Here is the input.
Amino acid sequence: LKPFFEPKTIAIVGVSTKPDSMGWTIFKNMLEKRERGLLKSKIFGINIKGGELFGQKLYRSIEEIDGEIDLVVIVIPAKFVPQVIEQAGKKGAKAAIIVSAGFAEIGNTELDKELRRAFKKYNIRVIGPNCIGVLDNNSGVDTLFLPLKKKVEGREIESMPRPKKGYVAFISQSGALGGTVLDYIYGENIGISKFVNYGNKVDVDEIDMLLYLKNDESVRVIMIYLEGIYGKERGRLFVDAAKYVSKHKPIIVLKGGKTKAGARAVASHTASLAGDIRLYDIAFKEAGILHARTLWEFTDMTKAVLYQPPAMGRNIAIVTNGGGPGILVADYAEYLGLNVISLPKDLVNKLKEYVDEGIIPNVATFSNPIDLSASASEEAHAVAVREALNHNEIHGVILLALHHPPPLKETLVKKIVEEINGIKKPLVVVDVGSVEMAKWTRRKFETYSIPSYDTPERGAIAMRALVEYGEFLRREGVFEDYLARWSPIKTSLF
Here is the structure.
């Protein structure tokens, strides 16, 4: 699969001179990345009429290009695609991304068979058809026909900016959902290594991608939007592959087609069978896959397992400076199956020592949540989090540090980070609010690999993901090995 991500030469078939068309946009994006030094591949544009675009010659066919082509990107009417695959095969092409739609998803099975015969004849690996292809932030390959900016009221504004470089791989059966998640990831400041939309998956599918990404050192977490898997044999292979990869890297899946209405839509969207969601639930659990139920869970869980180590158990402590919001965290955490235990006596005694020293306010309570009160200093928050994480019976901490009370200043983040340095237990932060201070606080925590959320419920969901992934690793007997390999994300990426 390497030619999809690190091609030396790329031919784009179907480069239109019509502005904002798919072929025009892909060609423009690729050339701009090459000019900025982000893409090293040589780019060739193909238009049956020839001509010129963006100062570059357009070839009439692949056959006119001197030398071999590694990757072919096809953006032409479906009926001509098999013919182009033949031409690409004769030029030694190793991979093809077929953006074109109009195959099995609309019932055109004969054309589908013709396409399969063509690429198998020349041993060409294919992503698609009916897809937007590949975005690789390491090599610069970008076949997405989604423009970065659009003009609104006479000025350009961001429309589909690409997420920054990072350690997440996202593979999606749907191009539209893929673009939506990329947009959201960009807003959440999550960096990605690779994005792949494989559409009808006439060749490359989830299994191929999982096995490839397992050995990709630029990937630490894998996100999958899945609509359906073709047949029982492929289903079994998917579970086996995912279970193998999950021992090394967490996998988060968002499943489309959970209802009868959704399943009907899936069948006409990518020609897949959605299947019984109960069977998928069983399969996901067996494979160690974290199953996200909503779009925001999809990204929140990803952020959690990307930034923090897995939990050794279900016992969590909640540290808060707001009684009511702390109760909401406790309620939702228990609803999700986490254990909000009564604090061990020795931990309570240790915290009371800080009360005697004047570090923790004497109005603080220690029932779990550890309610420090609105008068608690930054140091009080830091020592409470440290002591909770250091206790053997506590497996993870949710810190609800509301920015509103006067004692909390911008140095809170630094104090917390200093106190927990070297502790390999998960910490999740919640700061409720949409004002600038709330956003700044959450973003600042994340520069130190501490996932932060704007509601108690989202924080609890994040901790559950860390607990469930830890349970899988322990079940498979690889928890200690994983923890030994784990290290925080490098802050230089932010």
